[in-house]
Design brief:
five-stranded mixed β-sheet, 3 domains, Heat Shock Protein 90, 60% helix, 594 residues, 17 helices, Rossmann fold
């Protein structure tokens, strides 16, 4: 929405935008004239009565009657004008016509008042001179006030009043009193200047009021958007755990079943079932990760780390997929110590590799490379896919936008991969690079800062490829199907397992065990509001050791407490068996928090 509005604004000529603002102000001035019409007429009628009284005091009864009738008639015209011409109120269609008519009536009023003043002028009487000068001056003072609604109205009134009367004064009055005519012309010029400043104040007031209303409308719209976003996050937070539970159980049972099959056709059928399961897993994980980014649950934690370790892990993760699709995967040497968040960097590169493999046809090539530049280390993923036309390159970073998928790519998608990459890069404060040309492939990457010289990266112990030594694993999972599937899978991997549905049951079973646990696997959200982190803490207290733990979670937010606990690896649901196995081996043999 914001991008569209900005694009629209940029497409407008500045003069057109200014003209539109002026039109909006004129519309408000017309409405102000209508709202203040009654009060203005009462004030002017008060002046009419005041001068009528002065003229009666001077003994000119006939002229007093003429003055009262004509000026009161003009006040009546001003009062009736909006009621007759715009009975339904001022609109964008009628305000110009209304203002033009109001200027004409004001000019006529000035001419009539000026004519009556000239008719009444008698240079031989000081009282007469006082009355006539006040007739001319008093009615124009209102147009100089900061509350004056519309300057062209004042200009018409003052011009119709001052110019004829001042010229008449200069012609008919002799002696030093003639200078009063010059003074009236000076007062007229001063009035035009002051009224200009008054209108500026009026326009600024109206513009400020208009901006206030626009800001209030924008705030109301933002509240609606924020409410919708919060409701979306709450919905996903409430449902992601429940949605991931059956998928998680299916994944564990699939892997357990694979070990029991001995015929090629059975394995082939299971491969197809597993491919469908992985598609569902990928879709749910993308939705959850996007929602976590929107909610602010993902926070970058910078540290110095060896980029080679990250890229080597990604090579191991994707080489089987690339081989299955007939794509050559090349991972270049990346011997750089960079200063960033290794987890977020891994997510970014994982998404870029997954995207490249999805859109590269069989026989193509995908490369992961790193090179030093003036800005840092550019880590990029290149492919020999179809490329993206320039007209579509902005759209692909919008949520839920997908272009044509390569024929050999089995998985559907939601179009969230690149938007997530860009948001993660923003979290890191890293520049995101993207180049693509139809027929020449795509190259995308991020620029990471090099760590300061002499700063040592976090050490990572050598991690074996297999689980050895029959480690004792405490499994706490309230969902029976997931607990059973995971227990079977862990047993197949050579682990001894204590499986429990709650923390209390796990504590009781642990007290009967004849060995210390090597690992704790717990669901984050257990039955009856029990928190898996609390269970981990209690089990560690029982054995008086910081036993490594893996926390399975389908929640979108509320992961801050995990970062504060040592040697806890968060594994988002639904995790596949490869992810669980890698996390399990890393937790058993790694030195720190996952």
């Amino acid at each position: 929405m914001t991008d569209a509005a900005d694009s629209f604004a940029r497409s407008q000529d500045p003069a057109d935008l200014l003209a539109g603002d002026i039109e909006a102000v004129r519309l408000e001035q017309a409405r102000l004239l209508v709202r203040r019409n009654r009060l203005s007429c009462l004030i002017v009628e008060g002046l009419v009565v005041y001068f009528t009284a002065l003229i009666l005091f001077a003994g000119d009864y006939a002229f007093a009657a003429i003055w009262f009738v004509f000026t009161s008639l003009l006040v009546g015209v001003v009062y009736a004008y909006p009621r007759l011409t715009v009975p339904d109120g001022i609109t964008a269609e009628n305000f110009r016509r209304f203002l033009q008519g109001h200027i004409a009536i004001s000019t006529l009023t000035g001419l009539v008042w000026s004519g009556l003043a000239m008719a009444y002028l008698d240079p031989s009487s000081l009282l007469n001179l006082f009355i006539t000068i006040n007739m001319v001056v008093s009615i124009t003072l209102g147009g100089m006030l900061p509350s004056a609604e519309y300057r062209p109205t004042f200009v018409g009134l003052a011009s119709g009043m001052f110019l004829p009367f001042s010229i008449y004064w200069l012609v008919t009055v002799d002696g030093p009193a003639r200078l009063i005519g010059v003074g009236l012309l000076i007062f007229y010029g001063f009035g035009l200047l002051v009224s200009a400043r008054s209108e500026i104040q009026t326009v600024e007031t109206l513009a400020a009021e208009r901006n206030r209303r626009l800001a209030a409308a924008l705030q109301a719209q933002n509240r609606i958007i924020e409410k919708a976003s919060a409701e979306k996050s709450r919905f996903l937070a409430a449902t992601s755990h429940d949605m991931s539970q059956p998928l998680q159980a299916q994944g564990f049972f699939l892997q357990a079943l694979r070990r029991l099959l001995d015929r090629p056709e059975q394995t082939e059928l299971l491969d197809k079932i597993e491919a469908a399961w992985r598609s569902q897993q990928t879709l749910l994980q993308a939705l959850v990760e996007s929602a976590r980014l929107d909610s602010g649950a993902i926070v970058a934690r910078r540290t110095a780390f060896d980029l080679e370790i990250v890229t080597a892990g990604l090579k191991s993760e994707f080489e089987a997929t690339a081989a299955r699709r007939g794509i050559a995967l090349h991972v270049g040497s990346c011997p750089f110590i960079v200063d960033s968040d290794p987890l977020l960097v891994t997510r970014i590169l994982r998404n870029l590799l997954s995207n490249a493999l999805k859109f590269t046809p069989a026989g193509g090539t995908v490369e992961l490379t790193a090179a030093v530049s003036d800005a840092g280390v550019l880590v990029a993923v290149s492919d020999t896919g179809p490329g993206i036309p320039a007209a579509d390159q902005d759209r692909i970073f919008d949520d839920y936008v997908q272009l044509t998928r390569a024929r050999n790519a089995p998985e559907p998608g939601l179009g969230l991969g690149l938007p997530i990459v860009r948001q993660l890069a923003s979290k890191l404060g890293a520049d995101f690079s993207f180049q693509s040309e139809p027929g020449a492939g795509t190259r995308a990457g991020i620029v990471l800062p090099l760590a300061e010289p002499g700063r040592e990266p976090e050490t990572v112990a050598d991690i074996p490829d297999e689980i050895s030594g029959a480690p004792l694993v405490i499994l706490v999972e309230d969902e029976a199907s997931i607990r059973e599937g995971l227990e079977i899978l862990l047993t197949c991997w050579g682990c001894r397992v204590i499986a429990a549905a709650s923390g209390d049951t796990a504590m009781q079973l642990l007290s009967w065990a004849d060995a210390e646990p090597s690992l704790i696997i717990a669901d984050r959200r257990l039955a009856d509001g029990e928190d898996g982190l609390d269970v981990v803490d209690r089990l560690r207290g029982e054995v008086l050791d910081d036993v490594p733990a893996i926390l399975l979670s389908g929640d979108i937010v509320q992961h801050d407490a995990i970062a504060r606990m040592p040697r806890v690896t968060l594994l988002p649901k639904p995790a596949d068996s490869d992810q669980l196995r890698a996390a399990l081996i890393s937790a058993l043999h790694g030195p720190g928090t996952g």
